Amino acid sequence: MSGASVSLRSVGKSFAGRTVLDDVDLDIAAGQFVSIIGPSGAGKSTLLRLVAGLDAPSGGRIELRATGRKADVRMMFQEDRLLPWRSVLRNVLLGIKGRKQDAGRILDAVGLQGRESEFPIGLSGGQRQRVALARALIHEPDLLLLDEPFGALDAITRAAMQLLLEQLLVARPRTVVLVTHDVEEALLLSDRVLLVKDGGIARDLIFDQPRPRHRGDPALATLKEELLDGLLTAERDLAAVA
Ligand SMILES: Nc1ncnc2c1ncn2[C@@H]1O[C@H](COP(=O)(O)OP(=O)(O)OP(=O)(O)O)[C@@H](O)[C@H]1O
Q1: Start and end of every ABC transporter domain (predicted)?
Q2: CA 42 – CA 237 distance, rounded (Å)
Q3: Number of domains in the chain
């Protein structure tokens, strides 16, 4: 299977003495698509940043393994983080020499054929996220970390981006960890959904429904309700503490 495997052993993270993650153990298999949901402030982005190596854990160990090379890890955020003074093509080729043809091919794959020489300011939010996705994918990452990448998009654009991501992963499987507030998005895309709360993983659901999945599918609806219930309870607990 393509992609990196990820393992966390007794991982903890505190900020100024306040524990956000406590003793987290997690194994993600190569090629698995894992979504992380949870109440606001539960530590979802923190967990992703630790896996990305953008931040160091306060305790424990994180290991990434890819076959034959050091795992290439790319991250995508809610904001596109494109450089406004660089064209679409030059954003994708950021830090890369040559490979203009590869970049053109990837821009075609994300639906931006013919837009190479335009600048981010002339693109819609969804188009800018397509560029951000292309910029990650040109590296053929073993692990793709997505922090609410479609969170700022309207419902239709969001659905189109979910479909695009799924198609790209069918064509070229890799390990993905997605942080999302959208339970339906998690269920449409993932092999596994983690509910993070109280400093740890409160639920770990394997979801092996065949793809492509459909929003109206009763199997999705049942799980969606269960997860929303878990989320609402977590939010209620938080409100009670506050
Ligand atoms: N660099 C930092 N310094 C201090 N505290 C931080 C830092 N990063 C995160 N935190 C705190 O850690 C907690 C978890 O934050 P995190 O962003 O991981 O939550 P989240 O689950 O992703 O939330 P949301 O769903 O609202 O984005 C929050 O209380 C936040 O204030």
Answers
A1: 6-223
A2: 12
A3: 1
